[in-house]
Amino acid sequence: MPQPASNNLERERLLRKSLSRWDNEGGHLPGAATGGPENPDDIVPPLSNAELVQLQIRVIALENLVVALLADASNEQLERVRRLAAAIFPRPGVEHRLTIQATAQMEHLSQRALRV
Fold first, then answer.
1. 65 vs 57: CA distance, rounded Å
2. CA dist 42 → 37, 46, 92, 98 (Å)
3. Residues 93, 96, 97, 103: what is their CA dihedral angle, to the nearest 10 degrees?
4. DSSP label at 70?
5. Half-sphere exposure (Cβ direction) of 67: Cα atoms closer than 13 Å
6. Buried b (16+ CB within 10 A) or exposed e, 56-74
7. Which range is least confidently modeled, 33-37, 91-95, 112-116?
8. Residue 115 in contact with residue 75, Cβ under 8 Å?
9. pTM value?
10. In terms of pLDDT, which residue wins out, 115 or 15?
11. First and final CA of the chain: distance in angstroms?
């Protein structure tokens, strides 16, 4: 049964709000360290299976696009990617494995580009 349009609009608003936080520890919610969101509007509903599959497809496509673009990059540009990856780290005192894995993934993408 399709969801009413108002539910879809609300879900889209919440997803956009969640995505806007990705500059901050991979989407870390404000107040999470204190046990909960600072604002009830910060509660984001879980993604449905279909939404997760779409995100996976988009990430795979983006990875391949980045590799294709990096394949034509100069050595200086590839070095810049490696330096940027090395400069990304979690805030002091916070062990954020996703940030660390993202750094490794950036290095991996630059290595894949060399083989293309």
1. 12
2. 6, 12, 24, 21
3. -100
4. H
5. 16
6. eeeeeeeeeebbeebeeee
7. 33-37
8. no
9. 0.55
10. 115
11. 45
